[in-house]
Amino acid sequence: MNDQTVSRKTFDEVMVPCFSPAPFVPDRGEGSRVWDTEGRDYIDFACGIAVTSLGHAHPELLRVLQEQGSKLWHIGNGYTNEPVLRLARQLETLTFADRAFFANSGAEANEAALKLARRVAFDRHGADKFEIVSFTQSFHGRTFFTVSVGGQPKYSEGFGPVPGGITHLPYNDIEAAKRAIGAQTCAVIVEPVQGEGGVIPADPAFLHALREACDAHGALLIFDEVQTGVGRTGHFYAYEDTGVTPDILTTAKALGNGFPIGAMLTTEAIAAHFKVGVHGTTYGGNPLGAALAGKVVELVSDPALLAGVRARGEAIRAKLAKINERFDMFKEVRGKGLLIGAELNARFAGRAKDFNAAAANRGVMMLIAGPDVLRFAPSLIIPEADLDEGFARFEQACNDVIGVAGSR
Predict the structure, then answer these.
(1) Which NCBIfam families match (predicted)?
(2) Does the pLDDT value for residue 408 go beyond 70?
(3) Do the domain assignments include residue 176?
(4) Where are the extended beta strands (E) located within 128-203?
(5) Is the pLDDT of residue 21 over 90?
(6) What CA–CA distances, in Å, run from 299 to 101, 113, 304, 360, 385?
C-alpha cells in the first residue's frame, strides 16, 4: 500500500506551482476557527477569500448537505431539478432579476455575462457593437476572456494575443467614462467595491454616470458582485445601497459557503437572447450545490444578520483605528460591511505579505489585496469573542513586523 502521509512539502512535489500556500495545512474548522494538522488553532479573517461567510461546519448547512446528498447530487442540464428552481426564485425575489443562469464559479458567471452582453448587442444592433468597458485594477476571473477584461495585465501577459474589443478606464473617473462609452460599447462591467484591486468602493456618482451612459448608448451595465454579494457589504447585494440597478449581476463565492456555485442574474428580455444551445455548462445548477445555496440565501437575507454585518464592520474599523494609534501603519481604512481594506502607509509600502505571514504565525488567517493592502473578510456571523481574540493576535503580529522601536 502506498504511503498516504502528506505535508506542506508534498504540495511542492505533486502540485502545479501556480500557488504558494501557507506553511501550515488546515485540517478542520468550526465557526470562525480553523485547526491545522498539528492541532494549532487560527482565527479565520479570510473565509477562503470571502467564501465561507457563515463560517465552517454550519449546522444547518451540514443538515442540507446530508439530506440532499442522500437524494441527488448531479443530473445534468438535460433535466431540471427542484433545488435549482427554488434557488432561482429566491434570488429573483430578492433582486431586480427575473431570470438566472447557474455556473460553478465567479469566473464562469462573468464569462456568461460577457457572452450574453455581446450576444444581445449582436442581435439588437449588429456585429459592430462589441466593445466591453472595464476598469484598471479590476478583477473578473481567470478564464482567458475574464482575465483579459480584468484590469490587471499581469494576469493575462504571456498567454498570447488577448481577445479584442476591450477597453480599460480609470476606476471612479466619471469624465473618462463619459468620453469612452459610446455607440460601439455593448457592456460596462464594474465591481461596486474593487476587491482584488485594493478594496476600493465605487463612488455612487460614478455608478450613476455609468448607468446614464449605458442607457444613452444602448449598452448593458454588469455588476460583478462575486466578492461583494450575499451579504458581504451589509446588504444582500451591494447594488442595493448605490441607487443603481444593473442589467446583469454576477454572484458566486459566498453563495455556496464553500461549495462551488456561481450565478448570473438578469431580466427576462435580456435572458431571451441566450436561446437553447447558445451557452451551457455541465455541473452548473446541480441539485447539491443549489440546495446548499438555497439555505445560504435564506440565512444571509435575514435583515438581522445583515444589520450584524454592518455592526461588525464598524467594530473592525474601531479596532484598526486603535492599532493605528499605536503603530502609525495605515494610510487609509476603507470598504463596506465586512469587506475592509487597510492600506499601509509609505513607511511599510510593499510589505502586506510580511504582515500577512506574521499574522499566520500568531494564529490569524487573513488576506492581502495587492502589495500594500491588508484585507479583512471574516464570517458574517463571527462571534465578538473571536473578533477580539483575532485582533489581539493581529496586534501582536504587527508588533512582530514593526518592533517596539517602531511603535509610538
Answers:
(1) arg_catab_astC (TIGR03246), argD (TIGR00707), PRK01278.1 (NF002325), PRK05093.1 (NF003468), PRK12381.1 (NF009047)
(2) no
(3) yes
(4) 131-135, 166-169, 185-190, 193-194, 200-201
(5) yes
(6) 21, 26, 10, 30, 22
Is 31 annotated in some ligand binding site? Answer: no
8 Å CB contact between 175 and 212: no
Among the listed residues 346, 353, 343, the one whose alpha carbon sits nearest the alpha carbon of residue 198: 343
Instruction: Kindly name the residue from 102, 130, 139, 145 that is annotated as catalytic.
Output: 139
- What is the average pLDDT across 102-128? 98
Catalytic-residue membership of 224: yes
Q: What letter represents residue 57's amino acid?
A: A
Q: Which of 282, 300, 318 is the last residue of a domain?
A: 300
pLDDT score of 403? 84
How far separated are the first and last CA of the chain, in Å rounded?
A: 59
| Nearest-angstrom CA–CA distance, 381 and 48 | 15
Per the residue annotation, which of 44, 224, 372, 386 is the catalytic one?
224
String of DSSP letters for 284-321: TT-HHHHHHHHHHHHHHT-HHHHHHHHHHHHHHHHHHH
CB–CB of 377/204 below 8 Å? no
227/230 Cα distance (integer angstroms): 8
The answer to whether residue 4 scores a pLDDT higher than 90 is no
This model's pTM is above 0.90 = yes
253 is catalytic: yes
Q: Count of CB atoms within 10 A of residue 223's CB?
A: 29
User: Is 217 in the same domain as 319?
Assistant: no
Q: Is 280 part of a structural domain of the chain?
A: yes
Across 253-263, average pLDDT: 98
Q: Cβ neighbours of residue 203 under 8 Å, at least 6 residues apart?
A: 172, 174
Where residue 224 sits, what CATH number does that domain have? Answer: 3.40.640.10
- State which residues form the domain around 329: 8-58+303-406
